Each structure stands twice: as structure tokens, then as C-alpha cells.
């Protein structure tokens, strides 16, 4: 009985070893396949990662030089944004200290960074550099859509990323506490979503409208960051009418969808201004201020003094519009 048990054990051991030998080559092949895929992925994305790293490195280098020398003093609009975001990050809201109401997009972004980092300007600087890396990836994706040939598409994407990563103006602006980096992110996202929407429409893909909804969200966020986008969105509407020119009702519906989503993002801020000031302020009052400032014979100090007499931001906006348009109409 012991001999039989020993023989059974030996057979079981041999069978197990044979099974292992049978399966070992396939596991090795599987591992090699994974390694090959990782190697292919790395080689394909290495140029993009290299360009991104160099672009971020240039921005970090400039940031280090600025902070090593004590940092730059807050100039112009920087102080407006930072001194609005700091109280907001502490739960005190946006103070009403200036002659205008600012677009809230960058203020909210900066306040979020400040809330997480206890008001660190250094962290906000890093966050803006992070935005530049995201913009580079978005631009790569957008440029890659310009060709059906994968080689040409990838090459176009790399050139586009290089133009963004090594642009000296962008490198410099990413180290200022201004709304441009966030605004560029919104615009790049908006255009990418619109491009994908167009491709899906032309390819008769299902649920293409989802990308148009996403474009509306980014358009709304862009308006909340820099409201001058409102003057370019009518061109997007014309583009949608052209894209769907074979069906006018569908074209109008798509324009309405984009406009509706965009307004759904922006109007809560507009209604907040209405409740606070008793007057409708779509996004900001900077446009009214600049219109008056640039269309008058008064010096800037005189314009400021004239507007300081009016305490309510909504009434100040209306007055600035009236004075600006009155000067234009009479000159």
C-alpha cells in the first residue's frame, strides 16, 4: 500500500512538472508581450514626454530665478486677482474694493489653490505651470486630428506641442498671476471638443451631441475667465450652421444646445451679481470701465474720480457705458 502511494505521488509530481513546463512558455511569451507593448508605448510617446519635460523645465527655471530673487511684486491685475482670491479662500467672499467687478474664473481657481495651501503664491505659480502642461496635451490631441495618417498626425501634434512649450511669451505669462493660462486651457478644450464633435458628425457616429455639450461647458468656463470670448462665440454658431447646412432645424437646435449649456454655466454668476448689486452684470464690468477710459478726453485719474462717486457696481457699469458710447457717437 505504501508503494502504491509512493508511485501515485511520483506520478502526480511528474504531471505537475509537465503542466508547469507546458504553461511556462506561454507565461514567458505573455511577459515578453507586455514588455514589448510598454517599450512600444514608451518609444511612441518619448518625443512628446521630452518636449513636455523641456517646456515645464523652462517654466520651472524661470520660476526659480524669480523666487530666488525675492519674487516679483504684484503688478496691475495680479493684485486684483490675488487680493480677491485670498479672502474667498478663507470663506469671506470676494471683496468689493475696486472700480470694477472682475470675471470670477481665475479668482475661483486661485482661491482653490490658496485654500489647499494656506495662501501660498508659490503653489499658485506651480499650479499655473501645471496648466501649461495640460494645454500642451490638449494641443497635441487637437493637432493630431488634422490628418488620417497616423504618422503625419503624430508629427503635427509634436510640432504643435513644441510651439506651445517653447513659446517665450507663454513661458513668461505662466509665471504671472493672471487669467491667461486658465483661459488658454478653456479655449484649447473648447476647440478640441468642437473638432471631435465635427468628426463624429461627419462620421455619422452616435451621441455626437455629448461633445457639443462638453464644448458648451468649456465655453461657459472660458466666459467666466475672460468674457471677451462672447464676441467669438457667434462665429462658432455660424460654423455649426455651416456644419449642419443640410438640415436647418438640426443646425438651429445644435446652436441652441451650445448656447443653452454655455448660459447654464455663466448665469448663476450673473444672478449672483443681480442679487448683490440690483443690476444685471453678465460676467464683469471691466469692459464698461475700459470703454469709458478709452473714449474720453479725461485723464485716467479723472475717469477714476468720476466713477468713484458711484458706489454701486451696477450703476457704475451703466454710467460708464453711457459715457463711453456718448463720446463715440459725438466724435
Properties at a glance:
331 residues; mainly alpha
Poorly predicted runs of 5 or more residues: 3-24
Evaluate the radius of gyration: 29 Å
N-to-C span: 118 Å
Helix content: over 70%
Number of strands: 0
What's the tally of helices?
13
H/E element string? HHHHHHHHHHHHH
Shape: globular
Main beta sheet: strand number and arrangement? none
Proportion in β-strands: under 5%
Structural class comes to: mainly alpha
Mean pLDDT: 89
Description:
There is one protein chain. By secondary structure, the chain is mainly α. The protein contains 13 helices and no strands. Helix 1 crosses helix 4. The protein is globular and about 60 Å long. Mean pLDDT is 89; it is low at 3-24.
Brief sketch in words of this structure:
This protein has 331 residues and is mostly helical. The chain is built from 13 helices and no strands.
Q: Can you lay out the helices and strands and say which pair or pack?
A:
Elements: H1 2-68, H2 77-89, H3 105-117, H4 121-144, H5 150-165, H6 168-173, H7 180-202, H8 209-225, H9 233-243, H10 248-277, H11 286-294, H12 300-308, H13 313-329
Helix pairs in contact: 1-4, 1-5, 2-3, 3-4, 4-5, 4-7, 7-8, 8-10, 9-10, 11-13
